[in-house]
Design goal:
The chain is about 75% helix and about 0% strand. With about 450 residues, it is mostly helical. Helix 1 packs across helix 8.
Length: about 450
């Protein structure tokens, strides 16, 4: 594919419920300064993606960040990075399906959540069944639709600010003029909000995996740069408009900040149109995650870090990795059941942990680049800035009581994956190495 196609798919894989819904929590946490949180998160994301793209250009490999972790630190690192990403995305997909189901009840309140969740899951699996070309087409169309929805909000919001729409009531838009208005929750609130901003940029791992399909691998950094520049511009402008149109108290976690911002105007069509856009965005990112974990499991199996059965592909059906897709589907079903059965807060902790696990992977990408690439001083400095921003987002979760348990759950996942890596080293990798050494000595004799 061309670099611009990868950029478009990147937009499709990134804009999702983390931005359309999760940004509301960020706004309530820090107020108008959420725009600075998003600017810092975009900088951190850019640094991570650029280093990943540099490794891809220097040594293209289907395993992407897992392969580079393995190359930099050994088999345990590749194993941990792969299963860490797989587990976190399965949990995130379950939460996205739950969010999509709740949004669908906006029109059909009497239909049970599990019916919507099952329907979206089936459609997502069908998209992946059509193979990479089908996935590309769907993601390109969905990327255009949800980007158009954001642009529509920006245009309507500007019209509202200039008084071209009549207000239902309440105060007209006002811009923050003081530090207290810009940072109503202080530095603590701003620090805590970073995790929500980073969450809205999640998805660069899928782009790293798909960079292998570029006609010119050296175009990978350019594709990511254009993608992140476009995302940052529309994110910052749209959120900046939203936080100036209504008071901080008006925002609710159950509603998109953009729907809340436009609620003061006589635009009855907007909640319906934007609700549809949010559903499209969530479905798009969920499908991208399913596509990513399915193909990654094939790579993990090829590398010997999962049963070889999962590397099998159906040759008569577009080389579909059916066993890998089957395991992802089982994980997705389990995640849906967990989301619908567990109390809301408990599952919120788990999904927060999943988001943190992705940030751990991002940190590993930067560290791997330090080991593999011959970086100039400026590139190393930006890498350390990226690590500092990731660390700020991770530690910010400790400051907020509502999401603090998610941090400790993420550490539990790290421990479990680490124990699995130790088991694999003792029971599998050491035996493979021993057999390889024997074969080598035999050949020398």
């Amino acid at each position: 594919m061309q670099w611009w196609q990868l950029s478009l798919i990147g937009v499709g894989c990134t804009i999702g419920t983390g931005y359309f819904l999760g940004s509301t929590i960020g706004i309530k946490t820090t107020g108008p300064s959420i725009i600075f949180s998003f600017i810092l998160a975009s900088l951190g994301t850019y640094i991570v993606y650029r280093l990943l793209a540099k490794m891809t250009a220097a040594d293209p490999h289907e395993g992407s960040f897992c392969y580079y972790a393995n190359k930099a630190f050994g088999r345990w690192a590749g194993f941990s990075a792969g299963w860490n990403y797989w587990s976190s995305n399965i949990l995130i997909m379950g939460s996205q399906l739950t969010a999509l189901s709740i949004l669908s009840q906006f029109w059909f309140p009497k239909i049970p959540l599990w019916i919507f969740a099952s329907g979206f899951a089936i459609i997502s699996i069908i998209v992946v069944l059509f193979g990479t070309k089908g996935f590309d087409r769907v993601e390109n169309v969905l990327a255009v639709i949800k980007t158009a929805a954001i642009v529509m909000f920006i245009i309507l919001a500007i019209c509202g600010i200039f008084g071209w729409f009549g207000l239902k009531g309440g105060e007209p838009p006002s811009f923050p003029n003081t530090y207290k208005e810009l940072f109503p929750k202080g530095l603590k609130g701003f620090w805590t909000s970073l995790i929500y901003a980073f969450y809205a940029f999640g998805g660069i791992e899928v782009i790293g995996l798909m960079a292998m399909r570029l006609k010119k691998k050296e175009d990978a950094p350019k594709a990511g740069t254009i993608m992140l520049l476009c995302l940052t511009i529309i994110y910052v402008i749209s959120l900046g408009l939203a936080v100036t149109m209504v008071s901080l108290d008006a925002f609710s976690e159950k509603e998109s900040p953009f729907v809340t911002a436009m609620d003061s105007y006589h635009l009855g069509f907007f909640p319906h149109v934007f609700n549809g856009a949010i559903i499209i965005a969530g479905f798009s990112t969920m499908t991208a995650s399913l596509f990513g974990v399915t193909n990654l499991l094939v790579t993990i199996a090829d590398d010997g870090n999962a049963p070889l059965f999962f590397a099998n592909k159906i040759k008569n059906f577009k080389d579909l990795p059916l066993p890998a897709l089957g395991l992802a589907t089982l994980g997705l079903i389990g995640s849906i059941i967990t989301a619908l059965l567990l109390p809301g807060k408990i599952y919120e902790y788990i999904t927060t942990a999943a988001g943190l696990l992705i940030l751990y992977n991002w940190a590993f990408i930067v560290i791997s680049a330090f080991k593999i690439l011959k970086l100039k001083i400026m590139n190393k400095l930006t890498g350390w800035i990226g690590l500092l921003l990731i660390a700020a987002a991770v530690t910010g979760t400790l400051l907020e009581r509502e999401i603090r348990p998610g941090f400790f759950i993420s550490l539990l996942f790290v421990v479990l994956i680490g124990l699995a890596a130790i088991f694999m080293k003792k029971r599998v990798w050491n035996k493979e190495k021993s057999l390889s050494d024997r074969a080598r000595r035999s050949n020398l004799d």
